[in-house]
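Q: How would the structure tokens look for this protein?
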Amino acid sequence: MEVSRSGYYHLLIKAHNKQADKDFELLSQVRHIHQKYRGTYGSRRMSKELRATGYDVGRSRAGSLMKKAGLEVKRPKKFKKTTDSRPHLPVAPNLLDRQFQVDQPNNVRCGDIT
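A: Here is the predicted structure in token form.
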């Protein structure tokens, strides 16, 4: 090949640095997109957004860039049903009607389900 050993390794390091520069540029772009969309973009939408800005990045590459940048996606909280209102059932009448002053003990009892 007629290339000295030091010249070969110099070219390897130069090519590696060129890739590192491109990674740095992509990482800054990924951080910007993550901040812009408040951490809601995962690897699929991130790669789509990067392609829209001119970078040819696939889903797995976008995911590895996000991991390299230490970015995580905010996941939506699961819906938790807290009430089971059934309007067709009768509602008990409010006999106390917020009159909490009673003249005898054990005359009025009430409860609360929260």
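Residues 5-69 form one domain.

The chain has three helices and no strands.

Upvote if useful.
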